[in-house]
Task: structure prediction
Amino acid sequence: MQTATGYRSGRGAGLLGLVTVLVVTLACAIGPTTPGEEPAPAPAPSSGEPVDGSGTVEEFERDIPGAVRLAEQYWDERFTESRQRFQPVRRVFAYSRDGEVSCGEQAVPRNNAVYCPAGDFIAYDVNWAVAAFRQIGDAFLFFLLGHEYAHAIQARLGIQHQFTIQAELQADCMAGAYIGDSVQERQLDLQDGDLDEFRAGLVAVGDDPDQPWFAEGSHGTAEQRIDSFFRGYERSFAACDLT
Result:
């Protein structure tokens, strides 16, 4: 999957009817919102080290900022269409150890990626993300950043959900819309196997089928997450119940 430049098709309507209720949205159900000090970004893996037979860490390091820029561009244009001011996420950075990053007073564990509204940042475990890059492919990184950026958009729109799973499945749909619209608008080149990578990634992060949907931290089964993602991918953000 590669970012590209091209014309804009104008797919989808503006973000209309935005609600204004305060919301706390964090991946993996990390909830405290008292302000906390950010740590310095963790270093990425050493450049040049091969990740697998088809990728390098240089590709990983290139894809992360490319996915962030594309998400910023996409949501900036959606907000502009609705005559709303868009504010990008303040920071996107890597970490590598338990407790290195805190959201408010809650430490962020390894093997995770989160959006923290307290500091308005996205943080991801670089070792876990590189492993996903190696095992699933670069398309999953665009989903990962798209999903966490969707949580930031939920916070900016003031969307409130009673249960974690509602916020998470909506973020999957929004990530699908960002990727699908970017492909339609020729801002993103979809390569052979990328759709399969999205499905494989969603299967990897899906809840156990026995996980109660109302449990704190529920994200949805693999089937639910795939359905939500591709609903946004095929029908744009109008399918994600943002209004």
